[in-house]
Amino acid sequence: xxxxxxxxxxxxxxxxxxxxxxxxxxxxxxxxxxxxxxxxxxxxxxxxxxxxxxxxxxxxxxxxxxxxxxxxxxxxxxxxxxxxxxxxxxxxxxxxxxxxxxxxxxxxxxxxxxxxxxxxxxxxxxxx
Length: 128
Hints:
Helices cover 16% and strands 34% of the residues. It is of the alpha/beta class.
């Protein structure tokens, strides 16, 4: 059995600076640590209960299989703020049939990100 102590998503962007501007600037993710120097340096961001590492540079376009799920307190407020900042919004916030409020956007490489709000009346909020 593997005992996992920590984890992170590794993202190798086509344009590291654009990705750092997006994740650190536009989304406002806090930096956990940085390593290396220059434009291809690595940056690790806090991502709720995990981490997102943006490092290196890729000449290969993304496959479309990576999606990031991020829970936020207020999807409508995130939508307004990200729209003003010029984020590539794929879909505004919608209450899904399963009760969560979700909006979709893209990072500079085209990776899809879902921002999710758990409404107060949703079963995920229930704590026996």
